[in-house]
Amino acid sequence: MSVQRPDPARDAATLSAATERLIDSVAALPATAVAEPSLLPGWTRGHVLAHLARNADALRNLLTWARTGEETPMYPDGEVRDKEIDDGAGRPLAEHVDDLRSSAERFALAAAEISPQAWAAQVRMRSGKVIAAAEVPWRRLVEVHFHHVDLGIGYGFDDLPAEFTGRQLDALLDGLSGHEGVAAVRVRDTGSGATWDLGAATEPELTVSGTGNALLAWVGGRAKGEGLTTDPDLPLPVLPPLI
Q1: What would the 3-class secondary structure string for 209-230 be?
Q2: 232 cis-preceded (ω within 30 degrees of 0)
Q3: In which domain, by residue range, is 198 found?
Q4: 64, 80, 125, 196: which one has the fewest Cβ atoms less than 10 Å from its Cβ?
Q5: Range name among 27-36, 98-107, 123-132, 200-209 with the lowest pLDDT average
Q6: Sign of CA dihedral 129, 132, 138, 143
Q7: Which of the four pLDDT bands, split at 50, 70 and 90, describes residue 96?
């Protein structure tokens, strides 16, 4: 499979719809839900919500970098990022909803201001990875979908749009192709028939099969392989953490 090229205008429109669905889901929660555990170890739902809002602003910084040519990192440093999440986690639900909406609006406005030429600008993610600015709306869409699941409020990997699932699987598994630290594995989507070969070996030693949603949950570090099968019948390989 080949990784799909970013289409920032289309991705921004898809992001808008996914964000509205997220906000509607959060707004319908009881006030007590904010302090309850999320599906991410050590984080309440309030932590996930605070992260989502601050991530919108952080990725907006990358759009500012692309538009102005002046280096504007996502966060000043990791300590500031973590403090902003911790400080914002305990706010009332209504404040989280307002923050999600206003930060999403700021991101959308910044994306609308980017010229066609500026989308080609190189910007740097928090991990240090350099990407084209055209990838930023897609990166934000991944954050919105994955963390909507992480909230543990009834939105799961089976609810993800098929187009998103396939594209994100391509992106994640492409990064593992030829990776020296990964076992020689063939991954097969039983729905689409798509396959990916991981690891540096020429021939896979194991085939992992399942639906695209189940595969994405596993590769994305959100599941232990529920719903997946292996041939031969061996334990699932350990994948490196996402960067």
Answers
A1: EECHHHHHHHHCCCCCCCCCEE
A2: yes
A3: 162-231
A4: 80
A5: 200-209
A6: positive
A7: very high
Specify whether 27 is located in the same domain as 111: yes
When divided into structural domains, the chain yields a total of 2
Question: Are 118 and 177 in a shared domain?
Answer: no
Same domain, residue pair 75 and 169: no
Residues in the chain: 243
CB 208 within 8 A of CB 187: yes
Confidence (pLDDT) at 24: 98
pLDDT per position as a tens digit, 48-92: 999 999 999 999 999 999 999 999 999 999 899 999 999 999 999
* Residue recorded with tokens 């990776």: 179
The pairing of strands 185-189 and 206-210 is parallel
1 assigned to some structural domain: no
How are beta strands 185-189 and 195-198 bridged, if at all? Answer: antiparallel
Contact 152, 39 (CB under 8 A): yes
Question: Within a domain: residue 118?
Answer: yes
Amino acid at 63: L
> What single string gives the DSSP state of each residue in 135-203?
GHHHHHHHHHHHHHHHTTSS--GGGS-HHHHHHHHHHHHHTTBT-TTS--EEEEETTT--EEEEBSSSS
- Give CA torsion, residues 14, 128, 174, 219, to 10 deg: -80
Amino acid at the residue 70: E
